[in-house]
Amino acid sequence: MASSRGVAAHRFSRRWLLVAAGAAGLVGAGAVQLPAEAVDADPDGLRRRILAAVPPYVGYAEATSRLGLPEIPQLESVTTLLTTTTRIRAFVAGPDRWRTDELILAGERVTYRLEDTEYLWDFDDDQITRVLGATSLRLPRAGDLLPPDLARRLLALAPDDPVEALPARRIAGRTAAGLRLVPVEPATTVGRVDVWADPATALPLRVEVAARSGPPLLVSEMVEVSDRLPDDADLSPTVPPGAGAVTADAADVAGALRVLDAPPAPDGLAGRDRIVDDAPNEVTELPGVGLYGSGLATFVLIPLGRDIAGRAVDGAAAAGGVVVEVPFGRAVRVTTPLLSVAARAGRGGGQLLIGPVAPDVLDQALAELPGRGRP
């Protein structure tokens, strides 16, 4: 893990659990291709500038993905995020001071970040939650699909992979310079990552992620953007009259990732080391959860209780999954162009494996997982 690629993957792992999870999708509207000479930008220099800073901005983005994931118990929010169009407002003052709003039919879900503290507002629950500490891994959320966040995370995972210039495009009323990253890691399902950014500020305005062949599978684009600091009032968590306010540990809001009796995650799977977090002391670990691999070929292990594991395997099988022979229990794997998902169930519980890796990687990992009893 001493290489720059390993360090980048490690940093990414703390921010977003399902690495580069995409959708079998379509290109969003509003990007008009211009002649390549419209912007003179060095792709290596543009990548360095994107990774070096988080410029302030206020804007609105749409991310479209249609992955076709099977029903995964307790991960319905993730499935929705990766199979529909997500609409997001962003108020960003810096890397540790921002707010994102996921706009939903019933209202909105808001996440505030103020230095080392997060606040979560859920319109449905009519409650704001102050989150203490952090977990080394977490599930993806709407703000992760914002073009600036998505671009920085994906580019950071492969900092030494080659990039080339793309023709400029007109995005959110401005001309954006483009670059394409083609991963060199053979085990990843990601074929290319295309990014267009403002050449003046290096703020990413559009991201496309494609598999080894075919059109983009995940597209995120700024529809409106303003290069300014957000107002202080927009970054201050407020509790509406009559709403609840609670404080919770980060592990308590981890949802499906928190299985208290889960055995420790193996140190290695499928020939890949577990990425070990060197986070500060306030980080709360999640039993049994592990991230493996490097660069854009990374997958996560999530422990499941017995009932949930059985339902996950049944759901994967109903979605046309392939049965995988394992030493203990039963297992099924589902493959999409950009994402592989596998579930195993046994008498003592089970596991979910997911990531942008080739199917045989998860098959090998399933075979190596220690058993907790027969089905």
Descriptive overview:
The protein has 375 residues and is α+β, with helices and mostly antiparallel strands. The chain is built from six helices and 23 strands. It has two domains: 20-248, Lipoprotein localisation LolA/LolB/LppX (outer membrane lipoprotein receptor (LolB), chain A, Clam); 257-368, Protein Transport Mog1p, Chain A. It has helices spanning 4-15, 43-52, 76-81, 147-157, 306-318, 359-368; strands at 32-33, 57-65, 85-94, 97-104, 107-114, 117-122, 127-132, 134-135, 163-171, 174-181, 190-197, 204-211, 216-226, 244-249, 268-269, 272-273, 283-284, 290-294, 297-304, 322-324, 330-335, 340-346, 349-355. The strands form four sheets. It has a 13-stranded mixed β-sheet with strand order 1-9-10-11-12-13-2-3-4-5-6-7-14, with helices on one face. A six-stranded antiparallel β-sheet has the order 18-19-23-22-21-20, sandwiched between helices. It has a two-stranded parallel sheet with strand order 8-17.
